[in-house]
Amino acid sequence: MKSERPLGEVEGTERFLSDGKGRGLRATNHFKVGDLVFSCPAYTSVLTVNERGNHCDFCFTRKEGLSKCGKCKQAFYCNVDCQKGDWPMHKLECSSMCTFGENWNPSETVRLTARVLVKQKMTVERTPSERLLSVHEFESHLDKLDNEKRELIQNDIAALHHFYSKHLTYPDNATLVQLFAKVNCNGFTIEDEELTHLGSAIFPDVALMNHSCFPNIIVTYRGTTADVRATQEIHPGEEIFTSYIDLLYPSEDRIDRLRDSYFFTCDCKECTLRTKDPAKLEVRKLSDPPKPEAVKEMIKYARNMIEEFRRAKHYKTPNELLEMCELSLDKMGAVFEETNVYMLHMMYQAMGVCLYIQDWEGALRYGEKIVGPYSKHYPPYSLNVASMWLKLGRLYMGLEKKALGVKSLKKALAIMEVAHGKDHFYVSEIKKELEDCK
Question: Is 286 exposed, middle or buried (0-12, 13-18, 19+ CB in 10 A)?
Fold first, then answer.
């Protein structure tokens, strides 16, 4: 395992060639649980359209009383400094949004890729986001793209030309295909403390880390900066692993997802030994237990329902979506225990619909069923577990169940102080919520 000569340095870590994985990141210092391994400012970022007015378009700060762009009235900022800082990127969209009005609808991937093109034109030297890995070094995996993925990229390129022609100088089509493929493989989703989607960004140094289904770090965000913190003790010489995907699901599902999105077969300990799969796929303990064929068919049904529900979100009403969840839970419940991850997946979707329609009691019922199994299925210091405790805590408080609310918020806080750091804004916010309860 040779060290590679890095572009720059990140104290306590080094870029190296990882056996069977290509380049990776390993520790040169000792890191305890909760230690900050490194931080990486975004190379570029874009706030999701749904959060405009709630967060600053430049720094992603959540606050009331944001000032809006005087021209398009659709971008919001903390102050003049944030507005000026965002102008090289916002000018890509400002006049276009005015011209297209309600028909302005490029995808978030298209918006992010447009900003990467501008950033590459603006900067000649490597940026503070590229101390270990440059954007030019990103893997595109072009040779592994099937026809469907290539067609989707061509659709994105068409949208890029349609919405951004005024302010962008375009490279040739082959270069754009490669760039979109790189963004698809190396882009990051920024989420808040309840895992609400805030936007997308490029963090080159974070993208250097390889995947494991039992990672030893976690990535959280302070505005548009990514923080990498240890969730296990890491010794000098050990590789630093992140997770590219949601780790709730059984090995076969994770392996399929990684192959489809990142083009490799995971051979980590979790995927090799599959020790957590029996609990994740638990079936009901009946006097006449379900036969293996019935279990196999129900797993197939569950996977199809997950995909069907994902598509249905775009055209069904909330009540119709909730009915989908309830019907699928009834059917799966004949074979699966409530702790089965496919049951948990549909419960989580149902909880989300209940929150959307402000059925607080309904959301609470689902959340109470989810949080215990989540704690067993996910690795330590999981943001999925923390966000569930946080949602439950806030629901309890809203429903005047103070004691349960305090208990749940404290459980969320214990995880978040490790994952986010004790000085993080979200941690301070939860501490204030607890203080207000006294």
Answer: exposed
The 10s digit of each residue's pLDDT in 278-308 is 999 999 998 888 899 999 999 999 999 999 9
| ∠ Cα 154 109 190 (to 5°) | 160
Q: Are 345 and 325 in contact, with CB atoms under 8 Å apart?
A: no
Q: Which residues of the chain are under the pLDDT cut of 70?
A: 1-9
* Residue 112 to residues 1, 43, 87, 179, 201, Cα–Cα distance (Å): 34, 11, 15, 11, 7
Distant-in-sequence, close-in-space partners of 179: CB < 8 Å, separation ≥ 6: 113, 116, 117, 140, 171
The pair of three-digit structure tokens given for residue 121, joined into one six-digit string:
């034109």
97: amino acid identity, one letter: M
- Spatial contact of 91 and 168, defined as CB atoms under 8 Å apart: no
Give the total residue count for the chain. 438
The phi-psi region of residue 290 (left if phi > 0; otherwise alpha if psi is between -120 and 50; otherwise beta) is beta
Q: Which amino acid is at 415?
A: I
Q: What is the four-CA torsion angle of 241, 307, 376, 237, rounded to 10 degrees? A: -10
Query: Quick check: pTM over 0.85?
Result: yes
Where do we find the tokens 């931080």? 39
Distant-in-sequence, close-in-space partners of 27: CB < 8 Å, separation ≥ 6: 12, 13, 37, 234, 235, 236, 237, 238, 239, 240
Which residue do the tokens 């607080």 mark?
A: 360
Q: What are the backbone dihedrals phi and psi of residue 382, each rounded to the nearest 5 degrees, phi first?
A: -75, 135
**Is residue 239 a contact partner of residue 26, using CB atoms and an 8 Å limit?**
yes
DSSP 73-126: S--EESSHHHHHHHHHHHTTTHHHHHHHGGG----HHHHHHHHHHHHHHH-SSP
Q: What's CA 400's distance to the chain center, in Å?
A: 32
